[in-house]
Amino acid sequence: MSLSCFWDLEKMFVGTTNSIIAYEIRNEGEFFDEKSILELGKGVTKLAANKRSLFFGSFEGYIGMLDIQSLSKKAGFTKKGYKVSSLISNDGFLVAQFETGLGMDKYVYIWEIKDDSERPFLSPFTIIVSRSSKIVN
To answer: CA-CA-CA-CA torsion for 111, 116, 118, 122, nearest 10 degrees?
Structure first.
């Protein structure tokens, strides 16, 4: 089973084997308003976020970007034949590691994120190719 989680003071997001579930957090940590916000075929491997966006990676090599307030989809990127094994974000950049099922080929992509743009991250800012290294988040 795949499980990934991200939270701040107002919301918690849980990535499961086939969806992302959003919870509103109120009253000293109680969870309310469970809402499945996205259904995926092969599951969520990683979640990351910045102040404005939630990013998720899947077993199918897809990275999606959702508006963290409205939970509407903003953008996406796919690397076919790979899974997303690591995902790290801050307000300016998104870093993702893709690897094959056997972990033999690994690619680290870095995007500059422009949340106010109509196309916030369409092509990688930098590509690093590696067969042995792993980023940790």
So the answer is: 0
